[in-house]
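Service request form, structural biology core

Requester: graduate student, group of Dr. S.
Request type: structure prediction, single chain
Budget code: on file
Notes: please return the result as structure tokens.

Sequence provided:
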Amino acid sequence: MDGLLIGRFQPFHLGHLEALRFALSKVENLWVGLGSSNKPAQKNNPFSAEERKEMILSSIDDSMKEKISIYFIPDLDNHVKWIEKIDTIVPKFDIVFSNDELTNHLYSKRDVQVIKIPFHERDVLSGTNIRDLIISDQKWIDLVPEGTKNFLINNNAKEHLKNL
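Core staff response, request fulfilled:
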């Protein structure tokens, strides 16, 4: 069985890593969709799809890499058209992992199982919180995997975020 997990991963953090592990415990292959892939850098979407892909791949082990394929998913103004667009980008899948109610509703009308992802320390592990911590020079390093940490430090994420 194959599954789909879509997220913005702005940046990829430990909660996202747990979501990948959870999804992989249910499927043989996982298609990871990087949402908002067509958006320019802005405060809420500061990292490009290529940068987010690099964060993910540098943060997971080889056994996970063998089971994961990453796809860029653009935003569309119409949710139904968005789901139809996903069908043209990713291979067929049997399960969607999502906590978004509209996405769950739309996929439940198809022959696709929808599974909610258990949140892991959601109050702390959110992209918004981590971006805010980086900008304000507070402790954030323990909230992201090693690969993401190295990416953010090496690419001067603090300055990048401040400039947005």
